[in-house]
Specification:
Length: 130
């Protein structure tokens, strides 16, 4: 029993120390791509080439999820969800009141269907902003 108590205390101390380490200072200037790669390489103890390869592969995976005839949705767990949203075609309308010139009528041309990309923040990303 005495052994279990000491390990329980040690794990709570470790948890407390990692919680204080997570509070990193806010960054005051926007990072460039090179600065982002350098920061990740430094913190993860991997080479800059490996970080670049990982980010390029992530972009390829996102593309394969979003493109035509694919799932249409990609989730980066806890951070964000990327969706492809199909907007339906809008028909042409004639003799619609002109909002900029009251009393005049105007014609609105048809718009074809289009696919848009929507990025939704998830819970952890929303908490970062608080």
């Amino acid at each position: 029993m005495a052994v279990k108590r000491s390990t329980a205390r040690a794990t709570t101390k470790r948890k407390a120390s990692t919680a204080t380490n997570k509070k990193a200072p806010a960054i005051q200037k926007k990072y460039t791509k090179t600065e982002i790669l350098n920061e990740i390489a430094l913190k993860a103890s991997v080479s800059k080439k490996e970080v670049t390869a990982v980010l390029e592969e992530l972009a390829v995976i996102i593309e394969r999820h979003i493109k035509k005839r694919a799932v249409g949705e990609f989730t980066l767990p806890g951070l964000l969800k990327i969706k492809s949203v199909v907007r339906p075609a809008r028909p042409a309308r004639k003799n619609v009141p002109n909002p900029f010139r009251p009393g005049e009528l105007m014609d609105i041309p048809r718009k074809p269907a289009s696919t848009r990309v929507k990025v939704l923040p998830l819970k952890k990303l929303k908490e970062f902003a608080l």
